[in-house]
């Protein structure tokens, strides 16, 4: 476990995690402002430049002058990977602590958070090998590539959806590079990195569903469809990761179908449904980590409570 603090001032990281729509960004801002901290984003899609409305990315003028890291670091055609994020975000956290500031990690992307807080070791990757398999995917289609995976690694093919081209490509890449089944090369989870304080934010399910519905309404009212149109002109379709983001994928499908009012209304509804489903997955994942101290998002004085707990153990 890496020690980031010195005897005079604690720089123990604080991680604010939890499902989408719970108010994590606002709480992280309050904490960072009070402690003189800097924020490290742990939302996969907020890494993309131009993907602002659909990811609920905090505008620069609402960040209170607090430095933010791992926002707007990828072009939409680039593939976001946990391994790239881990390397960059670990460096950010350690640099922040080195400046004597408190790193405040915030986000809801499960693998990103765990790879940052715990010492994960990832299997090999090779851009040329991956590019070749991605080209193969474009040529033969996802179904045929899934069948090819089944001949090379039946267990991986059984575990990966036949429609998930990204994971099929990754499995084939790993099998080729390691000569082992994909499962044998899964990330190895090591010890916690910094003994970070981890707080989880959640709401009553019925209330959170209302918040998610309102959040989806605001995104579409604020111009998500126009944002997607602009990004399509900039190469969004080439983004293996970005084009699959919640909201963006649904709007792309609606525009491809003609972009009528009815089709866009359906995209709106499907975005809400998909977000609600994703929240269920986030809850299931985060609840397995017994280090998380859960807080009710409806409670008052959340920043006070987090900071008091942090000071008690730092």
UniProtKB/TrEMBL annotation:
Annotated function: Catalyzes the transfer of a dimethylallyl group onto the adenine at position 37 in tRNAs that read codons beginning with uridine, leading to the formation of N6-(dimethylallyl)adenosine (i(6)A).
SUPFAM superfamilies named among the record's database cross-references: P-loop containing nucleoside triphosphate hydrolases (SSF52540)
Positions with a binding annotation for substrate: 20-25
Sequence similarity: Belongs to the IPP transferase family.
Annotated site location: Interaction with substrate tRNA: 109, 130
GO terms, molecular function: ATP binding; tRNA dimethylallyltransferase activity
EC category: transferase
EC numbers on record: 2.5.1.75
Amino acids binding ATP: 18-25
Keyword annotations: ATP-binding, Magnesium, Nucleotide-binding, Transferase, tRNA processing
Designated name of the protein: tRNA dimethylallyltransferase
Domain of life: Bacteria
Complexes and interactors: Monomer.
Entry keyword Transferase: yes
Annotated HAMAP family: IPP_trans
